[in-house]
Amino acid sequence: MYTLASEFGQAPRAHARQLKAHPRILSSRSLPCFLVGTEELPDEIEVELQALTESITCDFSITTIDQVPDVSTSTRSFSNINFQSSSTTPLRFALETFAIEHPVSTSDLRVFEERLALYLATEAGVRSQGGDTEIVLVRKFLELQIARIKKALGIDIDHSEQSPDYLLGEVLRHVGGEDLVLLGEVMALTSRMDY
Asked: Does pLDDT of 81 surpass 60?
């Protein structure tokens, strides 16, 4: 996965409460600025915390989902790609906002990895409060698109859980009551031969 790289300053005061909730990251000395709650995080999110801590900054003057501050990389912010700002469903938003170029190999992998970092950081903040998990669908869709780009570029995928086929299943597992037409569009993504 994309390795993020920059550092935070001092963690906000609220993070003192989180030392007990997130014992595995005590050694980092600086808790991520986007962790605004104390709930335990899923393993798949927690394993990314160190990389996110090193690359994500927070703007506490803007909140996005469930009082999570707007998170940014050096080039983009979550508030600019926040699915909750759209009047469409999460899946339609993902399909429209995170479409990739054709042929797939012409897509910018780094841009998609930065978008994923923003979604992971925001999801961590949401889930640290026990918040709504609608964001998971969009994050899984981004992971699917990244896997497709890597496949097109001939980049080795180390684990089967990072393959396009596996991630398609993960997206479909989180779609809820989305339109069947949209589900068909998602399913068609991994069958396209324009790599």
From this structure: yes
